[in-house]
Specification:
Elements (H helix, E strand, L loop, with lengths): L9 H11 L3 E2 L1 E6 L5 E6 L2 E5 L4 E6 L10 H9 L1 E6 L5 H7 L9 H5 L3 E2 L8 E2 L4 E13 L2 E13 L4 E2 L2 E2 L1 H4 L2 E3 L4 E3 L12
Antiparallel strand pairs: 1-13, 2-3, 2-6, 4-5, 5-10, 6-9, 7-8, 9-10, 11-12, 13-14
């Protein structure tokens, strides 16, 4: 089957995208507004944008209502900073709580029952319970179609001691959550290639 995305309505195309690009890591993004309100939201359109300097990117889509920018995007535009926290399996229900559409004045750390921890460079808090958090300073925001691609320079890693081994992250210990089409997945099998078992 060959499908021309131009023949699909946006929702049908979106469903094919999120079912094809899997599994996706989740950027649990913490920001703070100019008024000091803490925000926390997960984004699965997320990856490394550059190795040197280290840069990360998230794609922020419009609100379902379509009238205002998401709080995350507004806060990043206002302050020029954000933190990406990695979601471990044990935090999955808490992450889901933070994905709900809370009003801009709500402290989403408080709503999700999480601990805001101070960062070294940025004013936004990190999630203390997360195994890995990465402080980012905004490099640029690129409008792409209906979405905004946010690119940030990574200025600090925060890694829980037991997850740091010989300069590497213990991925098995981190137990990261991944996003599929409408549901989620966990890392269950880690192997090297080439492998004889397939």
């Amino acid at each position: 089957m060959v499908i021309d995305p131009d023949t699909l309505d946006p929702q049908a195309c979106y469903k094919l995208l999120i079912g094809s690009v899997v599994p996706r890591p989740i950027a649990w993004t913490s920001t703070v507004s100019r008024d000091g309100v803490r925000n926390l939201a997960p984004f699965s359109f997320f990856t490394v944008a550059s190795r040197q300097p280290p840069m990360l990117c998230i794609s922020v889509g419009p609100r379902p209502e379509g009238d205002l920018d998401k709080d995350t995007l507004s806060n990043i535009e206002q302050t020029g900073e954000f933190v990406i926290n990695i979601v471990s399996l044990s935090l999955s229900n808490t992450m889901f709580e933070s994905s709900k559409n809370h009003p801009p004045e709500a402290d989403e750390f408080e709503k999700a029952g999480l601990t805001p921890a101070p960062c070294e460079v940025v004013g936004a808090p990190r999630v203390e319970e997360a195994g890995v958090s990465m402080e980012c300073l905004l490099d640029r925001i690129l409008p792409l179609g209906t979405d905004s691609l946010v690119i940030g320079k990574l200025v600090r890693f925060h890694v829980r001691d037991e997850l740091y081994e010989n300069g590497r992250i213990d991925v098995s210990g981190l137990d990261p959550l991944g996003r599929l089409a409408g549901n989620y997945t966990k890392v269950e099998t880690i192997f090297d290639l080439p492998a004889d078992d397939f």
